[in-house]
Amino acid sequence: MIRRKGRFTGRVLAAALFLTFAASSVNAYTLVMRNGRRVEIPNTFTVSGSTVTYEVGSGVQVTIQLNTIDIGATELANGEPAGSFLSKSATPAPAAGRPRQTRPTATRSITNADLEEYRRTRIASERAYEKRRKTLGLPTAQDSQRELAAVGERTHEQLRNKRGQEQEDETYWRGRAASLRTEIAANTAQIDFVRGRLDELPQTSNPFETTGPFGTLGIPSVNPWYIPFPSRRRSGPFGRNNRRRTGIWNPPLVVLPPQTPDHTFERETLTNQLNDLLMQRAALGVRWKELEEEARRAGAYPGWLRP
């Protein structure tokens, strides 16, 4: 009786081992490494571009580099055609006959009881703060808010004063620059006028270098104003044949040529005036440089001096 029971127990154990081995062989996949080592992995795994990943437990994954696997030998060991290893799906398929379960999303509704609890917590925090404030001698919340409001108002007032001061400074420097530019423009206009007048005047003006119908000095060779009278014989102490011509004799008349205006004095005056204007221009240039330097030292923006 005891032998039969032992034989029966051994047969059961052998059958269990066989079933376990068969199940494991069905659900196992063999990887053949390049060094000849074989690795048994689950039949469900993913193949990416450079790795092979399979799961050995709940949330435990193992990753093997693809370049360490002999793909041809692996396919031959598992009785698969060439290229079937790399065609494994990147996402494992769900088990047949078992629907995919979706995890429900946790939701929570806030009730009036929760709001009341929040209100009690807030009131307790405010009481604790008030107690600590009195212990440390800190100002109240209202005093702190008033102080913050006063600080903000002072800040805005300072900004307004600063902007007003900047506007006054800009008006001041723009006014000085505009006044000096007006003087420079007036000086330039005067210089252009004097130079234009000098260009209009002839270079030389000699009143004696003119000719006319009577020669260079206008003196004819024969006096046309001599008017003779008829002569008559007279007797006198010098004899009978003494004769004297009578008539009107006009002295030679010098006819002057037409007078040409002499611009020598005007040219000298204009030349002196032009020299004075050029000196004024140099002085205005020095004043402009001094204005720029003064504005730079005062912190004025360069744009305030531009038109």
Description:
This protein has 307 residues and is mostly helical. Among the domains are: 2-77, no CATH class; 116-170. 50% of the residues lie in helices and 10% in strands. Strands 3-4-5 form a three-stranded antiparallel sheet, with no helix packed on it. Strand 1 and strand 2 form a beta hairpin. The model is unreliable at 18-26, 89-97 and 207-227 (pLDDT under 50).
How would the global form be characterised?
Answer: elongated
By DSSP (H or I, 4+ residues per run), the number of helices equals 5
Could you give a short account of the major beta sheet? 3 strands, antiparallel
Low-confidence stretches: 18-26, 89-97, 207-227
Radius of gyration: 64 Å
Beta strand count: 7
Write out the strand line-up for the largest beta sheet, numbering strands in chain order.
3-4-5
Helix content: 40-55%
- Separation of the first and last Cα atoms: 126 Å
* Beta-strand content estimate: 5-15%
Class derived from helix and strand content: mainly alpha
Q: Secondary-structure element order, as H and E?
A: HEEEEEHHHEEH
Mean pLDDT: 75
